[in-house]
Design brief:
Blueprint lengths: L58 H19 L18 E3 L4 E5 L2 E6 L2 E11 L11 E9 L4 E9 L9 H15 L4 E5 L7 H12 L4 E5 L5 H14 L3 E4 L7 H7 L11 H11 L32
Parallel strand pairs: 1-9, 4-7, 6-9, 7-8
Antiparallel strand pairs: 2-3, 3-4, 4-5, 5-6
Length: about 325
């Protein structure tokens, strides 16, 4: 009825709880679900570690709960902190967000590519292809990660490719054209294509599309013999722990962050992980640092070997 009283009561059990006090961009929220409601939160301990319910929970009882349930479940059930109660391996909160777009300049036939004022020295681009109707089965994902001279990694874009499976046989061409456009848009020097399974004939088709678009981008075929969950862990673990990974704001508009929060190592996990696989491929790839001959109309932003000779008409 108009002016009626609404009451929500409960304990958070997930990072995407309805009781979160900040918006969840990964879920499409621009404001918290209960934005504007008065909130009453009574965790078992306050910010100084003092128990708020001493007659029910003494220090030994609280310590026993922490040992028995682990840090995530304790934070969710007893401290009312919105986290996933399963012990996640990948923590997206360690990723630093940035808003800058690529800045490409040419001076004296030398190309420079910068992000947020830092010069980029290498790039890794990975395409993990898949076929099928959109929203069903594995996703086809391409990602690009740039690296700066200080050892920082910049996840600039993650794109989930879509294609119309009708008419038959055109889906591969549609995806290759999207990959070629992606490579040209972000000035990618090479694209690694995972050729396990459905990707066996794609490199040849992709090279044709690269030539037709004039991107001057190389196509590198990659066959992986390492289990996917191990590839993901090896790609992310050290870089996340070091706080060296940044991501463009647009990455939060894709399913990638949701995949990251929900992912679990081990063969039993059946959730989506195609974006994670593509980005881990970028992070694990040997950086493309050696300048390759660019197309005639395109300079290499990764620097030129040797010095620059200038014509002079004066004597020293």
């Amino acid at each position: 009825m108009p002016g009626g009283f609404q009451l929500y009561a409960g304990t958070p059990h997930s990072y995407f709880t309805i009781y979160a006090d900040t918006a969840r961009a990964e879920a499409g929220e621009s404001a918290p679900f209960l934005d504007g409601f008065k909130r009453l939160a009574l965790p078992v301990r306050d910010s100084e570690g003092r128990c708020l319910w001493p007659e029910r929970f003494d220090a030994d009882h609280i310590a026993a709960l922490q040992r028995r349930h682990g840090p995530n479940k304790f934070a969710s059930q007893m401290m009312l902190q919105p986290v996933n109660i399963a012990a996640g391996r990948l923590d997206p909160d360690r990723i630093r967000r940035y808003d800058a777009d690529l800045d490409y300049t040419e001076r004296n036939r030398i190309a420079t590519l910068t992000l947020d004022g830092r010069r980029m020295v290498s790039a890794s681009c990975w395409w993990d292809p898949a076929y099928g109707a959109p929203g069903k089965g594995d996703g086809s994902v391409i990602a690009v990660v740039f690296a700066d001279a200080e050892g920082g990694y910049w996840l600039h874009r993650v794109q989930y490719l879509t294609a119309d499976p009708e008419p038959e046989g055109s889906e591969a061409v549609q995806q290759c054209r999207q990959v070629a456009a992606f490579a040209g848009r972000y000035r990618v020097p090479s694209v690694r294509v995972e050729v396990n399974g459905v990707g066996k004939f794609l490199p040849a088709l992709l090279r044709l599309e690269m030539d037709a678009s004039g991107t001057g981008c190389a196509v590198v075929e990659v066959t992986s013999h390492i289990p996917k969950d191990r590839r993901i862990m090896e790609g992310f673990d050290a870089i996340l722990a070091a706080g060296s990974l940044r991501a463009h704001r647009s990455v939060w508009d894709t399913p990638f962050m949701m995949e990251m929060r929900e992912w679990r190592p081990g063969g039993a996990y059946r959730g989506p992980d195609d974006g994670l696989d593509a980005v881990s491929g970028c992070l694990s790839s040997e950086p493309v640092r050696l300048p390759r001959l660019p197309a005639a109309s395109r300079l290499s932003w990764r620097g030129q070997p040797g010095g620059v000779a200038a014509e002079t008409d004066f004597d020293i």
